[in-house]
Automatic annotation (TrEMBL):
Protein name: non-reducing end alpha-L-arabinofuranosidase
GO biological process, one term: L-arabinose metabolic process
UniProt keyword S-adenosyl-L-methionine, yes or no: no
Enzyme class, first EC level, given as a word: hydrolase
Molecular function terms, GO-annotated: alpha-L-arabinofuranosidase activity
Organism taxonomic ancestry: Bacteria, Pseudomonadati, Pseudomonadota, Alphaproteobacteria, Hyphomicrobiales
UniProt record similarity statement: Belongs to the glycosyl hydrolase 51 family.
Keyword entries, A-Z: Carbohydrate metabolism, Glycosidase, Hydrolase
Enzyme Commission code: 3.2.1.55
Domain Alpha-L-arabinofuranosidase C-terminal: 290-495
Subunit structure, as described in the record: Homohexamer; trimer of dimers.
Organism: Martelella mediterranea
Swiss-Prot/TrEMBL catalytic activity: Hydrolysis of terminal non-reducing alpha-L-arabinofuranoside residues in alpha-L-arabinosides
UniProt entry tagged with the keyword Hydrolase: yes
Length: 504
């Protein structure tokens, strides 16, 4: 199969906000406890945080981490996680039917963020709580001192405010499963008044209002229209979530699903434009895609655990998807979709980061390793910064009943003018044919190929485990070549490819 791709230096989509490559840590399962925090672990630092996990997070160069939930946040009291650890209360977490020890709170998490070189994106509880608790939390986190909450922060050991700019106004408030679920009208009003109060403290905050939990929600996309009708001029982003499944073991259908994602983004971009016009507003609202991933491998196991609802365990294994090779391709296509819509999607959070549907897995007291999906996220986060380029793609495709036609080759391209490189992220969805790529680089003067990496495997179900952590990993491809008008490369069937070129 031949595939032609043309990029031109001046045909750009948008500058990419580096926060497109963010992630998420929720107080659930083993994300925090025995994930990032395990005081008895051989690699634990003086704060009880695992150094082996920190090293892997640093590798990913994660720009922002959303915290502390998720469904968890909708019944969370942030005050439970401050002050002397031995005095912190144990609470029942209604979302995941577990016990929360509160041994990690905002102080411990922010220190961890500093250590791994990331920023905090904080979510407030608009399920069981409201404006007052949100403004108290904001004062605790961002006010220098001289007020009750800011002085309490200082007493608790943090002199300087954290100055967190990015705040989520609740989580998935459209979901009937959410503690304190609301209608779009109820939530829109509350979100607006909360945003107003938060801006009375600091008008320059970046605020994220809840959109739909997926494009399969009954209330989508009316939810977005109603919520934005209430909040448009008070917020900066609307949050979207989506998780991908392949219960049917239908590789072709599964890999076509990034088109559903693209349609979702297009629709919400349309709703944003509609409300903007309706309000005669001059400001823009963008999308924060702050939960996305593959999530289905662990569902049966978790249904059994959660259906029993026996007891309230501390940090039980939950949502521990063992990712396979096929998921590398899916995550590669999802990231391409975000890059190709970088004009409207500014923030993205791979959900989640450690143990819970995560690129990094740990064993309590034992190893930490990279899941298969670590790698497409790694390449996009490290090399997908700069300007997203438009692609003219000329390539055959296939049709699925539900989704329609998708091209066999999925691609995105990012020009980094600062370091003089251009990076290509490619997935071949074809199950038996290689894609012979002819890539025209218009307006660029290519010098050398810096990286040519491939992720491929004959078994789509293969996973990385503690005993075989490198079953799936990038290898040197080394068949990409420069010449004529650009680049040629042969992309193996069902493979992920990353090519980076140095420009003159
Ligand atoms: O990421 C796991 C869960 O998925 C989050 O708690 C919730 O927001 C979503 O439904």
């Amino acid at each position: 199969m031949r595939a032609g791709i043309t990029v031109h230096k001046d045909y750009t989509i948008s500058e990419i906000d580096p926060r497109l490559y963010g992630s998420f840590i929720e107080h659930m399962g083993r994300a925090v406890y025995t994930g990032i925090y395990e005081p008895d672990h051989p690699t634990a630092d003086e704060n009880g945080m695992r150094d082996d996990v920190k090293a892997l997070v640093r590798e990913l160069d994660v720009p922002v981490v959303r915290y502390p939930g998720g469904n968890f946040v909708s019944a969370y009291n942030w005050e439970d996680g401050i002050g002397p650890k031995e005095e912190r209360p144990v609470r029942l977490d209604l979302a995941w039917h577990t016990s929360e020890s509160n041994q990690v709170g905002i102080h411990e998490f922010s220190k961890w963020c500093d250590d791994v070189g990331t920023e905090m994106m904080l979510a407030i509880n608009l399920g069981t709580r409201g404006i007052n608790e949100a403004r108290n939390f904001l004062e605790y986190v961002n006010h220098p001192g001289g007020s009750a909450w800011s002085d309490l922060r200082r007493e608790n050991g943090r002199e300087e405010p954290w100055n967190v700019k990015l705040w989520c106004l609740g989580n998935e408030m459209d979901g009937p499963w959410q503690t304190g679920h609301k209608t779009a009208e109820e939530y829109g009003r509350l979100a607006y008044e909360t945003a107003k109060a938060m801006r009375q403290f600091d008008k320059d905050l970046e605020l994220v209002v809840c959109g739909s939990s997926s494009s399969f929600m009954q209330t989508y996309p009316e939810w977005e229209a109603t919520v934005l009708d209430h909040t448009y001029d008070a917020v900066d982003y609307i949050s979207l979530h989506m998780y991908f499944e392949n219960h049917e073991k239908d590789t072709a259908g599964y890999l076509a699903k990034s088109k559903v994602l693209a349609n979702y983004i297009d629709t919400v971009a349309g709703v944003i434009a509609y409300v903007k016009s309706k309000k005669r507003s001059k400001k823009d609202v963008y999308i924060s895609f702050d939960e996305w991933n593959v999530w289905y491998h662990s569902k049966k196991r978790d249904e059994a655990t959660l259906a029993g609802k026996e007891g309230w365990p501390f940090a039980p294994p939950l949502l521990e998807d063992d990712y396979n090779f096929e998921d590398v391709l899916q995550v590669g296509c999802i990231l391409n979709t975000f890059i190709n819509r970088a004009d409207v999607v500014k923030i993205g959070c791979l959900a989640q980061l450690v143990n819970v549907i995560a690129p990094i897995m740990t064993e309590p007291g034992g190893a930490a390793w990279r899941q298969t999906i670590f790698y497409p996220y790694y390449f996009a986060s490290r090399y997908g910064r700069g300007t997203a380029l438009k692609l003219a793609l000329d390539c055959p495709g296939y049709t699925t009943e539900d989704i329609g036609e998708v091209p066999y080759v999925d691609a995105s391209a990012v020009h980094n003018a600062e370091d003089g490189t251009i990076s290509f992220f490619l997935v071949n969805r074809h199950q038996s044919e290689a894609a012979e790529i002819d890539l025209a680089l218009e307006g660029f003067d290519a010098d050398t190929i810096l990286d040519d990496k491939v992720i491929a495997h004959s078994d789509v179900d293969i996973t990385n485990t503690a005993s075989a952590p490198d079953a799936v990993k990038p290898e040197d491809a080394a068949d990409a070549a420069l010449g004529g008008k650009g680049l040629t490369a042969s992309i193996a069937p069902l493979s992920y490819r990353f090519v980076r070129i140095k420009l003159n």
